[in-house]
Design goal:
Distance between the termini: 17 Å
Number of domains: 2
CATH superfamily of the largest domain: Medium-chain alcohol dehydrogenases, catalytic domain
Radius of gyration: 20 Å
Structural class: alpha/beta
CATH topology of the largest domain: Quinone Oxidoreductase, Chain A, domain 1
Shape: globular
Strand content: 25-35%
CATH architecture of the largest domain: Alpha-Beta Complex
Largest sheet: 7 strands, mixed
CATH class of the largest domain: Alpha Beta
């Protein structure tokens, strides 16, 4: 059986859509027909070589999506043929299956425990979650990375208090999800920070009460002004920009908490004043919003079906697989918030 898939053959080069031979399923592996895949800045960083040396070239990409189970391998107990699933890089329960290898004629094409830029993909059992078929397939794809990371920061790490204040730096897929969640969980002052005016307008639609365009004004100064000199209770950095990370920490009051979700290029560092830590400020990194895959994803799905989460707003563009390089170019240029590949 074959699949069309976008392959990264060389760092810094465009992805190539090729026909690949799908391997036989091993223990803990599941064959999934992909319906939608999300486009993430992390994947863009991988393509551009910002994560450092890539030892696995050529390989597949994509770590969030939605699909239908086609076949299950030995030992798989969570799923059966026909199940509607969310695909995610975040580990849940089930077998942590090994990476697999596709073939293009005699050439080996590597893949990790998950890949989603293909019509069909072999996925590890513990990177899948079954959800209701009432959820639209495009919405389900958001539940694989963008929303659980952004919402998880608000719900699982910060555990924001009603009436609190928060600044969110970088209104991409994760940042916009954080804005939506901050609104849902009762933050009274939600300050969105970005360099693109259309993203700031989008943040307002999601619930941001104030916006700051750092092309025109200093974020730390403006946040202090907007809070009457008090600074914010929480800050979230999603842009992957070192200056933004530093400003997110600087913009807190002395008992505030910052969470860093963005990725700097390998080797880059940030600088903070350690006396701020002594005074009581806290800074954390996050791995997928500390999401409990098997509990949080079904919860978000139920909240969507109940009309409590307006996830539809997060999708700003859809592309075909043949348009994937154009999609990543638009992501790099800040033209889209969260784009999806439709199969």
């Amino acid at each position: 059986m074959k699949t069309k898939a976008a392959v990264l053959y060389e760092i810094g080069k465009e992805l190539v859509v090729d026909d690949l031979e799908i391997p036989e399923l091993e223990r803990g592996q599941v064959l999934v027909k992909i319906l939608y895949s999300g486009l993430c800045g992390s994947q863009l960083n991988e393509i551009k070589g910002r994560k450092g040396e890539d030892k696995y070239l050529p390989h597949l990409l994509g770590h969030e999506g939605s699909g239908i189970v086609e076949k299950v391998g030995p030992g798989v107990k969570k799923f059966k043929k026909g199940d509607f699933v969310v695909l995610t890089w975040i580990k849940g329960s089930g077998i942590d299956a090994p990476s697999c290898k596709y073939k293009k004629n005699s050439q080996t094409i590597n893949s990790g425990a998950i890949s989603t830029f293909s019509n069909f993909s072999v996925i590890s059992e513990n990177r899948l979650v079954k959800i209701s078929k009432k959820i639209p397939a495009d919405i389900a794809a958001l539940l694989g990375c963008a929303f659980p990371t952004g919402a998880g920061i608000i719900k699982n790490i910060l555990r924001v208090k009603k009436g609190s204040s928060i600044a969110i730096f970088g209104i991409g897929g994760i940042g916009s999800s954080a804005v939506l969640a901050a609104k849902f969980f009762g933050c009274a002052k939600i300050i969105a920070v970005d360099i693109y005016e259309h993203k700031l307008e989008f943040a307002k639609e999601l619930g941001a009460t104030h916006t700051i365009n750092t092309k025109n004004e200093d974020a730390a100064t403006k946040i202090k002004e907007l809070t009457g000199g008090l600074c914010v209770d929480y800050s979230v950095e999603c842009s992957g920009n070192g200056k933004a990370m530093e400003t997110a920490f600087e913009s807190l009051h002395d008992k505030g908490i910052a969470v860093i979700a963005g990725n700097l290029a390998k080797g880059e560092k940030i600088s903070i004043d350690p006396f701020d830590l002594i005074k009581g400020k806290k800074i954390f990194g996050t791995w997928g919003g500390e999401t409990n895959l098997d509990k949080d994803i079904p919860l978000y799905a139920k909240m969507y079906l109940a009309g409590k989460l307006k996830l539809d707003k997060l999708i700003t563009q859809k592309y075909g697989l043949g348009e994937i390089n154009n999609a990543f170019a638009e992501l790099e240029n800040g033209e889209i918030i969260r784009g999806l590949i439709k199969f």
